[in-house]
Structure formats: structure tokens, C-alpha cells
Design goal:
The chain contains three helices and 18 strands. It is mainly beta and about 375 residues long. The strands form two sheets. It has a 16-stranded antiparallel beta barrel with strand order 1-4-5-6-7-8-9-10-11-12-13-14-15-16-17-18. Strands 2-3 form a two-stranded antiparallel sheet. The chain is globular and about 60 Å long. The N and C termini lie far apart (about 60 Å). The relative contact order is 0.13.
Length: about 375
């Protein structure tokens, strides 16, 4: 009998591990962004023809629900639904991103340079710089900033199209995107024409602690349905990051410069005939420095300067000191102050206090390497 039991034990197959219940389900993450702002004067914005009062508001500014999953060995899927609030008790629902990322293809030459690229097809944040590729909850400051808003807008540039990233020799990475136009300040009337974006980035790491990235960006599009009015935007994006092996310290120095030109045509008296044409041109730039005091606390200072697209003689600058405190990687508080000086009387001598709370629950994808933790 003992021999028979031993034989049964040897021949019996070991129990198979139970499959996880969420094996075929996407990971789900919810991001919440709360903003309270106080201003010393009225602040208004024209949002799709509607005048919005922005000053002295407490908003659940944005809630994002993010779904990520591996479709198969060749592609991943991403869907991000955003609920955005511009004024109290009014929400807009939008697909912030929804795309398939093709990681590989079953062709023998695919893995050889310059192929082996990553391709996104769908709706995505375009390659107009690191600031544009960040969702609101990942921004280093509470708002995207004065200069960014001048050329792109208060919200990031999001488009439907195709994006291809290729890794090149000499530590270069090239991105080319073809997408539906519109959706940014210089080209807001070109939604029925394509826009093309080229991005060439050089990245290097020194002594395992110092990261440097320099990116040149170019955009070409139209500002009318017929494609007669051309839009061009050029940008230089620079980043330096120091992250030593010991925890609780880091330094980030970053900035971006813009030059844009956009031809336009307007029917100023609504009689059906174009009676005003011209070209808008402007320069602008921003830079910020951020220091990590300890594991939870970060402090920084941002400076913006920009010309007005409507009148280059009007210049505006803004200084933004800020402090961020991480209770954990899932819960953050941030306090900032903005002082704006401008040749435009409506924007001049504006003092704004901003208090931001950001929370995350569910699966937590990693941050981009230049974002705090």
C-alpha cells in the first residue's frame, strides 16, 4: 500500500495556478484634479464663442478615466475619457486619447533600424513638446502657462491621426505625425485640413545621474478649409534633470521657445465676404527650475514671456513660484502664485493664487521620467 501511494503521488500532475480574474480586462486608473483660484481682478476667456469668467472659482477641473490593455503581442490599446469643468456645475465629456500602439509587426525586417518603430493610430497628444504630452494632473505647475496658451491654447493639442517614432544613431529619436488640423490657437480654423508635425530629439545620460534632452519641433498646417492660409510653428524644447542615487533629492531645469506665423482671413461684418486678411507672428518662451527638498516636498519657479499674436507690440510676462507636497504618489497638494505684467491693460498687474489637489486611484502607470517622482 505505501508503494502504491508513492506511485500515485509521483504520477499525479501538480495543481495548475488559478488564472487571475482580470487576465482579459484592462487596467483602470482614475485621476482627479481640483483647482481653486483667487484673482485681484476679473479674468474672462472666449471659449467657442462663450464668454467664461475664470476668476475666483473652485472647480473639480478634470476627472480622467484611463483604460490600458495589451491587445496582442503586436499592439497595446489606450482609452482615456475626460470630464472637464470650465465653469461650476457644467461638464464636458471628451475622448482625451484613444489609440492603438503598434509595438511590432510579424515581418522579418521590422526589427531592423530605422524600422522597429512605435506607431500610434487614433487620437493622441501630439509631439509639440513635453508640455503638450502631459495630462493636466502631471503638469509641474497648476496651469500650462502663459506662453503655451498663446501658441497652443489652455488645453493640449490633441488630434486624430498617425504618429511614428523611430530610434536613430547618435542617440536621436525622430517622430513624425500626420493628423487632422485645428485644435490650437494659430490654426484654429484648419480643422478640415491636415497638419504635419516633425520632432527630432537628442537624449543623453551622464554619470548615471544627469539627463539632458534637446528637441527641435516643426509644425505645418492650414488655417482655412481651402488650404490657402498657411500655418507654421517652430519650437525648441530643452530639459536638464539631476537625480542622484540617494532618494529625496532632484533638480529639473526645463524650458521651451516658440516662433509661430499664421495667415488668416476674417469676415469682420458677417456679410459673407472676406474683408480682412493678414499674417499673425509672435515669439515666446518659458523656463522653470524645480528643486526637490526632500522625499515629499518640491519647490519651483517658472517664468513666461510672450508677444501677442494679434499685436506683436503687446508683450506679457508672468512669474510663477510654486510648492508641491506629495502625501504619497497617489495624493498631491500644490500652492502657486502668479504675477502677470503686460502692455495689455486688461492683463496687466494680475495677481492670482492657485491651490491644486490631485488624486489617483486604481492602477498607477509610471510618470514620465522628468515629472517629479
Amino acid at each position: 500500500m505505501p508503494a502504491l501511494l508513492l506511485l500515485l503521488c509521483v504520477q499525479a500532475e501538480p495543481p495548475k495556478p488559478a488564472k487571475p480574474q482580470n487576465e482579459f480586462n484592462p487596467t483602470i486608473t482614475v485621476y482627479g484634479d481640483i483647482l481653486w483660484r483667487l484673482d485681484n481682478k476679473d479674468v474672462v476667456e472666449d471659449h467657442d464663442g462663450e464668454i467664461i469668467d475664470k476668476d475666483d472659482k473652485f472647480l473639480l477641473r478634470e476627472v480622467e478615466v484611463e483604460f490600458r490593455a495589451a491587445i496582442d503581442p503586436y499592439a497595446d490599446g489606450v482609452l482615456i475619457i475626460a470630464l472637464e469643468q470650465e465653469v461650476p456645475d457644467e461638464y464636458e465629456v471628451d475622448v482625451e486619447e484613444g489609440y492603438a500602439r503598434i509595438k511590432s509587426l510579424p515581418f522579418g525586417v521590422w526589427e531592423e533600424p530605422p524600422l522597429g518603430t512605435r506607431i500610434k493610430v487614433g487620437r493622441f497628444l501630439t509631439a509639440l513638446g513635453r508640455q503638450n504630452r502631459l495630462h493636466t494632473h502631471d503638469l509641474p505647475q497648476p496651469q500650462r502657462g502663459l506662453t503655451y496658451e498663446t501658441f497652443i491654447g489652455e488645453h493640449p493639442h490633441i488630434a486624430n491621426g498617425v504618429s511614428a517614432e523611430a530610434f536613430l544613431p547618435l542617440d536621436l529619436q525622430a517622430t513624425f505625425e500626420a493628423a487632422q488640423g485645428g485644435g490650437f490657437e494659430l490654426g484654429e480654423d484648419g480643422e478640415n485640413r491636415p497638419v504635419f508635425i516633425a520632432n527630432l530629439s537628442w537624449f543623453a545620460t551622464f554619470a548615471d545621474e544627469h539627463d539632458v534632452e534637446i528637441t527641435g519641433i516643426g509644425l505645418y498646417g492650414s488655417n482655412d478649409d481651402g488650404g490657402r492660409r498657411q500655418v507654421r510653428l517652430y519650437s525648441l524644447d530643452v530639459l536638464y534633470s539631476w537625480k542622484p542615487a540617494q532618494q529625496g533629492r532632484s533638480i529639473v531645469l526645463a524650458g521651451q521657445a516658440f516662433y509661430g506665423s499664421g495667415e488668416f482671413e476674417e469676415d469682420t461684418d458677417d456679410d459673407g465676404f472676406i474683408d480682412l486678411t493678414g499674417t499673425k507672428r509672435a515669439w515666446g518662451w518659458f523656463a522653470y527650475a524645480q528643486y526637490q527638498v526632500d522625499r515629499r516636498l518640491y519647490g519651483g519657479l517658472r517664468y513666461d514671456w510672450t508677444e501677442s499674436l494679434d499685436d506683436r507690440e503687446i508683450e506679457t510676462w508672468r512669474a510663477t513660484p510654486y510648492v508641491s507636497y506629495y502625501f504619497s504618489e497617489f495624493f498631491r497638494a500644490r500652492l502657486a502664485y502668479e504675477f502677470t505684467d503686460s502692455d495689455d491693460e486688461e492683463a496687466d498687474d494680475l495677481h492670482t493664487f492657485l491651490f491644486q489637489l490631485t488624486f489617483v486611484f486604481g492602477s498607477h502607470p509610471p510618470h514620465p521620467y522628468w515629472v517629479n517622482q
